[in-house]
Design a protein that fits this description.
single chain; 4 strands; 18% helix; extended
């Protein structure tokens, strides 16, 4: 997981467009600590895929991938 997920900067909505108020988030830790406990007892069906249309240019399908 450490090869795929890397630390990112999270910007709260009230601090949009500003550097102040941002924080680094370790996605690997968040995945296992926060989301892992949330989905631990779930038997399956972790995601929802909503098709939102085709991409301009090459016609590839665009989707929104949600955790349920």
């Amino acid at each position: 997981m450490l090869k795929v997920l890397y630390p990112v900067v999270e910007v709260p909505t009230e601090a949009a467009g500003k550097k102040a108020g941002t924080k680094k988030v370790d996605l690997t830790a968040k995945l296992f600590d926060e989301y892992g406990t949330k989905y631990a007892n779930r038997k399956g069906g972790y995601t929802r895929i909503v098709k939102i249309g085709e991409r301009r240019g090459d016609g590839a399908m665009k989707v929104i991938l949600e955790l349920v």
